[in-house]
Amino acid sequence: MNAPLAKTRPELVCPAGTPAAFRTAVEAGADAIYCGFRDETNARNFPGLNFDRSELAQSIRFAHDHGTKVLVAINTFPRAGATALWHKAVADAEDAGADAVILADLGLVAHAAVKHPNLRRHLSVQAAASNPDAIRFWVETFGIRRVVLPRILSVAEIAAINAEITCETEVFVFGGLCVMAEGRCSLSSHATGKSPNMQGVCSPPSHVVYKEEGDDLVAKLGAYTIDRTPKGVAAPYPTLCKGRFTAGTYQGHVFEDPVSLDAAMLIPPLVDAGVTAFKIEGRQRSRAYTQAVVAAFRKAVDDHLAGRPIAADMTRRLAEGQTTTAGAYKKTWR
Amino acid sequence: MSETRPALVLGPLLFNWPVDKWADFLARIADEADVDRVHVGEVVCSKREPFYADRLPEVIERLQRGGKTVVVDTLALVTLKRERALVADLAGLDGVEIEINDFTPLASLPADRRFAVSPLVNVYDEGTLGWLAARGAWSVCLPPELPFASIATMAAAGTALGVETQIFAFGRLPLAISGRCYHARIQGLAKDSCRYVCAEDPDGLDVDTLDGEAFLAINGVQTLSQSCVAALDEAERLIAAGVGAFRLSPQDCDMVAVAAAFRARLAGTIDGTEARAAIVAAGLKPPLGVPMMSGSWPATAGAPRA
């Protein structure tokens, strides 16, 4: 089966953790902004981040004045007995004028489909819909219009999925890289009692301790040593799956090296694979970072659409000293 | 308590055991284990499935002759065409129950076919539980990270809906699933050329911190807790809350004895300390830990209970 042509001009979907970052991303050329409420309903529930109701409404007005869409992430799994908080988040997003909500929980998607039929529903990466059958289930049952694909698929697999489904797909192109199927990982829960699915946090700063031991700096998450570096060497943030451990005779990064995703050079084949939207991770990042990354990807997408090659390494310097990877988009990653 | 006796459920085996060991294990379970239901089928890695696919019918028959209800599990992470076909085949299987490990099977499962839901499916709230019940779910094993308060709310909701709620009561906790095979990665191999190195670790391979703390275990594309949880002290509380079934995930030890310890504990004839002693005597190798629901998590995670 031939890869289908791109259905539309690809949409650049950019993160905003604060109203200031939101305006910056809009002005830097985002086609759409995604953001969330300041509570446990969204998967970047960090102190000092996110939007209250009036900030969201004002930001959406600003975005719409600039021709930019706003997608509201309500992508944690509701706490049993407290689903009303998540239902209210969906209702408030619609009232504030959101162009779509990004949802992960089946019960919440079902609720939104019945109570907010005119509100566009995107399926969060946290729902881990990883093949055409699963995607068809979500589309046919709940009218999902776009699915954010898990970061475990190769470009060829994404093309094959798009050839079989009727909804749009969105893929991550830059930023933090989960090595586990998103929404199906409770490693953080195991170490800290706080998880992406329930509290909207992973390896939370509240549980990070740096400790000097002899000539080493030890980075701990909860009670566990995640990494150890000689004093004077930059200590990595102890994200659980990027830590160094011992397994049998192996010692090192069992799960993933401390790398971040950069798929800028894969924009052409991903467009050919029928991807509708490119997503940049990082609602927790600074305004300066947001500006630089959004502008670089705006240029990369525009260059590709104009038939110009994408400049190699244009985005590499934005990774803030981290090594980058094309992740699972290259099949050898597995 | 006999009227509301909670069900004991065993399996599915998450690890890659040699096919003869797997068949002998389930034959002994069929003949000797005091469990109500046995789960079979490959959940973790589709590359393992061809090794025992042709022996599955005889194993299922043996279990049924032993008076066990047999439940066949689907794969947890489905990406390849062959994996999709496998899932669709299972969804069409007659004469056995089926348990879904993601939502892929719901694309092909007939509307009148009932199904169970595994702890690897995200059922966190009563909205999701209610929708699944209406679609045909009759038993839902809750995600292991749920705290007790959520379990109680879900068990009450399940009771009202006529759906059995189940908890992951014994075994290394399934914590994550990935497209990448870690067993292959640490050997310098890729998933496609893995040489089945996961078969060397019948309980999974221990992952310790650089300071030697017991932390995690890997099992191919799956990551588990290194400690083996046992929901023993919580039994009365869980039963009173309406939890209808306790799941025992096989580890490389005498699972007949583990099942007997749980049965006695659920009947109230032994206490948690006695049950733990019986489990250790069954030859369990991973450290015995407490489940997340206990509330003392994560302070005691990975450490044997005092």
TrEMBL record, chain A:
Cofactor(s), by name: [4Fe-4S] cluster
Record field: transmembrane: none
Gene Ontology BP term (one): ubiquinone biosynthetic process
Pathway: Cofactor biosynthesis; ubiquinone biosynthesis
GO molecular function: 4 iron, 4 sulfur cluster binding; metal ion binding
Signal peptide: none
Positions of [4Fe-4S] cluster binding: 178, 185, 202, 241
Domain of life the protein comes from: Bacteria
InterPro entries with a match to the protein in the record: Peptidase_U32, RNA/ubiquinone_mod_enzymes, UbiU
PANTHER family cross-referenced by the UniProt entry: PEPTIDASE U32 FAMILY (PTHR30217), UBIQUINONE BIOSYNTHESIS PROTEIN UBIU (PTHR30217:SF3)
Assembly and interaction partners: Forms a heterodimer with UbiV.
Functional note: Required for O(2)-independent ubiquinone (coenzyme Q) biosynthesis. Together with UbiV, is essential for the C6-hydroxylation reaction in the oxygen-independent ubiquinone biosynthesis pathway.
Similarity-based family: Belongs to the peptidase U32 family. UbiU subfamily.
Designated name of the protein: Ubiquinone biosynthesis protein UbiU
Biological source species: Siculibacillus lacustris
